[in-house]
Amino acid sequence: MTKNINVIIGSLRRGSYARKIAHNAIDYFPEGYKASILEIRDLPLYDFDYDDPEVADVRVPEEYTAFREAIKASDGILFVTPENNRTIPACLKNAIDIGSKPNGDVAWKNLPAGIISHSVGRMGGYSSQKNLRLALSYFDMPTPGQPEVFLAQSPTLFDEEDRLNEGTAQFLQDYVDRFVGIIDRQLEASGNG
Predict the structure, then answer these.
(1) Which residue positions in the chain have pLDDT lower than 50?
(2) pTM above 0.85?
(3) Angstrom distance (rounded) from CA 89 to CA 43
(4) What keywords appear on the UniProt entry (predicted)?
(5) What does the pLDDT look like over 67-112, one tens digit per residue?
């Protein structure tokens, strides 16, 4: 059975470093795993009126429903995000909020998550990753522990073909392997492995 990994990129820009990192990371998943990018570009801003049963004159946007169903069909989520103003980008926070509702049917609940953050500076997206971890902690999402992945000075990590340098690639491969281990253990424990 193929295991489905959705990769969510915290940047909408087509040529972003986060997107380049994500495309590299997809290749690090082993046989039996299918990792693909789940776009968040077209998600309308979150509004609880869509999910409030007492508000009858609005309907849940189709984009919300499709996104939530894609998350629920996942065996794990890999987040790849830059840092914007010491936190996660607004588009990523919007996606987190959409997946967190309705209250009785949270798409993120207990889903294994991997997090790769980066920045063009020396901090490697530290603040964005810590803020993302804080948001995800509410949903009991197991994540790989140490070492976490903070990629500093991200523009320097790529060759002319947008492939990551050898050291960074090995570091990310180790992280993906540990993430896969969490997914495999969780699926075994649930009887779906």
Answers:
(1) none
(2) yes
(3) 14
(4) Oxidoreductase
(5) 999 999 999 999 999 998 899 999 999 999 999 999 889 999 999 9
